[in-house]
Specification:
heterodimer, A: 274 residues, mainly alpha, MetI-like fold, 2 domains, 81% helix, flat, B: 256 residues, alpha/beta, Rossmann fold, six-stranded mixed beta sheet, four-stranded antiparallel beta sheet
Chain lengths: 274, 256
C-alpha cells in the first residue's frame, strides 16, 4: 500500500472509563434503592398483619404466603404446578412464537401470498384468547395439549406479523449485492432477510413471554388438574388468599425466568448489535 | 476487444416517461480506468445500475468480454457504492469473504483467502470486529476488499468516496489507483467531481443531463507515474484536462 499517510483514519473508539464508572455507580444505586423499597413494602405488610392493622383473611401476609410455598414444596405440589405451567409455556412458546416467526420470515418469498393472507391473519389475531380457550378444551381435552395450543395461539400472530414486517424492511441494496455475487433468492433470504429481521423477531419474542404465560393460566382456569392457574383457582374457591398470592408470586418468578431466557437468546442472536 | 462494451443504451422508467438516458455508448479496455462524469440528474446512477445488471435498459445492450449480459447481474462485475453495504451482523473478515462464499467457496477457504489481504489494506487486527467498530474510511476499504477478493473482470464504483472527508478521500483514491494498477483491474468510476475524474482516469466520458447523453470522450494522459492523487493534481496537464471537462459540461445546461 502507499506509504503516504496524510489521513490516518484508524480511529478506535475508546470507551470513556469515567462515563463507564459513573454508569455502574448509577446502576448500583438504582438496584439498592429498588431492593430497599421492596423490602420496606413487604415489612410494612408483615408488621401490619401481625399487629392486626391488615386483615390477614383478605390480604394474607408475606410470612403466610412463604409458609404456603414451603408446605407445597415439601408435599411436591409446588414442583408439579410450576413444572406443568412451565412445560405448557415452553412448548406453546416454541410452537407459536418460533413457528410464527418462521412463517412470517418465509412470507418474504411471496408478497402475493402475504397480501392474500393478511386479512385472515388479522382475523385470527383479533380473537381474544379467553374466547377461544373453551373451544380448545373441547378439541384437545383437559390435559397438557389444550394448554399448549392456547399458549401457541396467544403468541403466533404477534410473532408472525412482526417478523414479516422485519423481513419486508430488509435493505434492498444488500439484497442487490447478494445478487451481484450470483446469489439466488434463497441465498438472499438466508444471508440478508433472516439476520436483518432478527431485531424484530426478538422484540416479538419478548412481548410473547407475557402473552404465553397469560395463555397458560387462562387455559388452566378453564379446565385443569395441575399448574399455577389451577393452584390459584383452587385457592380462591377455598377462600385461601394465602394460596392465591403464593400462586401470583410464582407467576411473577416464572415471567422473570422466561424473560431472562429470552434475553439470553437475544444476546446470542444480536451479539453484533452494541 | 473491450472488456466492457455499452452500446446505445437508453432508459425510460415508464413507457411515456422522460428519457433518462439517451443512446449511451462507452467502452472500457482491459486494465483501463474509465470515469463517467456528469452533473446531478444526468442519470449516472441509472447507468450504473444498468451496467451492474440491476436494472434492464429500455434499449441497447451491455457486453462483458463480448458476451451480452444486459439485465443480468454477473459475478464478473463487482461494485462499490457510496454506502459501504457491509453486513452489520458479520465480522469484518466474514464481510470481506462474503462474495467468495456466495460464489460457492467453502466458508473456511473464503475466510482464509479474505484474511490474506487484510495486511495489504491496512486493516490487520480488525478481522474479528463488527463493522460498527470501524471508521468510515475503514468501512469503505473493507467494501473494496470484498469486491477485489472475488477478482471481478470489471469494478464499478458509484461515488464511492463522496461521503469521506477530503484528506481521507485523497488517501483512499491513491490506494485504489495503486491497487488497480498493480493488479491490472478494469474500473468504471462514476462521479460528479471533475478533479477526481482527471486524477484517477485513463479516459473520461462526460455526460449532460436530461436526457443523460455522452457529450465528450476525453483520454487522459498525465505526465506522472505516481499513484498519489495529491501529486497527480500537480501534473502540468491537469488544468487543461480540468478545463476541457468543465467546458464540455458547460456546453450542456447544468441542472441545479
Amino acid at each position: 500500500m502507499t506509504t503516504l499517510d496524510i489521513a490516518d483514519d484508524r480511529v478506535v473508539r475508546a470507551p470513556s472509563t469515567a462515563t463507564g464508572r459513573r454508569a455502574t455507580t448509577y446502576r448500583t444505586l438504582l438496584i439498592t434503592l429498588q431492593a430497599a423499597i421492596a423490602i420496606a413494602l413487604l415489612a410494612t405488610w408483615e408488621i401490619g398483619a401481625s399487629t392486626g392493622a391488615v386483615n390477614t383473611f383478605l390480604f394474607s401476609s408475606p410470612s403466610r404466603v412463604g409458609q404456603v410455598l414451603v408446605e407445597r414444596w415439601q408435599s411436591g405440589d409446588l414442583l408439579l404446578d410450576v413444572g406443568t405451567t412451565a412445560l405448557e409455556v415452553a412448548l406453546g412458546f416454541v410452537i407459536g412464537a418460533v413457528g410464527g416467526s418462521a412463517i412470517g420470515l418465509l412470507l418474504w418469498y411471496s408478497k402475493f401470498v402475504a397480501d392474500l393472507s393478511a386479512p385472515f391473519i388479522a382475523a385470527i389475531g383479533s380473537i381474544p384468547v379467553l374466547a377461544i380457550a373453551p373451544m380448545t378444551i373441547i378439541w384437545f381435552g383437559t390435559g397438557l395439549e389444550s394448554k399448549i395450543v392456547i399458549v401457541a395461539f396467544s403468541c403466533v400472530v404477534v410473532s408472525l406479523t412482526t417478523s414479516y414486517r422485519g423481513a419486508r424492511m430488509a435493505d434492498q441494496d444488500l439484497l442487490n449485492l447478494v445478487r451481484s455475487f450470483g446469489g439466488n433468492r434463497g441465498t438472499a433470504f438466508r444471508r440478508v432477510v433472516v439476520p436483518a429481521s432478527m431485531t424484530w423477531v426478538v422484540q416479538a419474542l419478548k412481548l410473547n413471554v407475557g402473552f404465553a404465560i397469560v395463555g397458560a393460566i387462562v387455559g388452566e382456569y378453564i379446565s385443569s388438574n395441575a399448574g399455577i392457574g389451577h393452584m390459584i383457582l383452587l385457592g380462591s374457591s377455598n377462600f385461601s388468599v394465602n394460596i392465591v398470592l403464593a400462586g401470583l408470586a410464582l407467576v411473577m418468578v416464572m415471567v422473570l425466568a422466561f424473560t431472562l431466557i429470552v434475553s439470553g437468546i437475544e444476546r446470542i442472536l444480536l451479539r453484533w448489535e452494541k | 476487444m473491450s472488456v466492457l462494451d455499452i452500446t446505445r443504451v437508453s432508459k425510460r422508467y415508464t413507457q411515456d416517461g422522460p428519457e433518462v438516458l439517451k443512446d449511451i455508448s462507452f467502452r472500457a479496455e482491459k486494465n483501463e480506468f474509465v470515469t463517467i462524469v456528469g452533473p446531478s440528474g444526468c442519470g449516472k446512477s441509472t447507468l450504473f445500475n444498468i451496467v451492474a445488471g440491476l436494472l434492464p435498459p429500455t434499449q441497447g445492450e451491455v457486453r462483458l468480454d463480448g458476451e451480452v449480459v444486459t439485465g443480468t447481474t454477473t459475478p464478473h462485475i463487482g461494485y462499490v457504492l457510496q454506502k459501504d453495504l457491509l453486513f452489520p451482523w458479520l465480522t469484518v473478515l466474514d464481510n470481506v469473504g462474503l462474495g467468495l462464499e456466495i460464489q460457492g467457496m467453502r466458508r473456511r477457504d473464503a475466510r482464509e483467502r479474505a484474511r490474506s489481504i487484510f495486511a495489504a489494506y491496512n486493516l490487520e487486527g480488525y478481522e474479528d470486529k463488527y463493522p460498527s467498530a470501524l471508521s468510515g474510511g475503514m468501512r469503505q476499504r473493507a467494501a473494496l476488499m470484498r469486491t477485489l477478493v472475488t477478482d471481478p473482470d470489471v469494478i464499478l464504483m458509484d461515488e464511492a468516496y463522496k461521503a469521506l472527508d477530503y484528506p481521507l478521500k485523497i488517501q483512499l483514491e491513491s490506494e485504489l489507483l495503486q491497487t488497480v494498477r498493480e493488479r491490472g483491474k478494469t474500473v468504471v468510476f462514476v462521479t460528479h467531481d471533475i478533479e477526481e475524474a482527471v486524477t484517477l482516469s485513463d479516459r473520461v466520458y462526460v455526460l449532460k443531463a436530461r436526457p443523460g447523453e455522452v457529450v465528450a470522450e476525453i483520454p487522459i494522459a498525465l505526465t506522472t507515474d505516481t499513484t498519489r492523487i495529491d501529486q497527480r493534481r500537480l501534473a502540468p496537464e491537469f488544468n487543461d484536462y480540468y478545463e476541457a471537462i468543465w467546458t464540455s459540461i458547460g456546453r450542456a445546461p447544468i441542472a441545479a
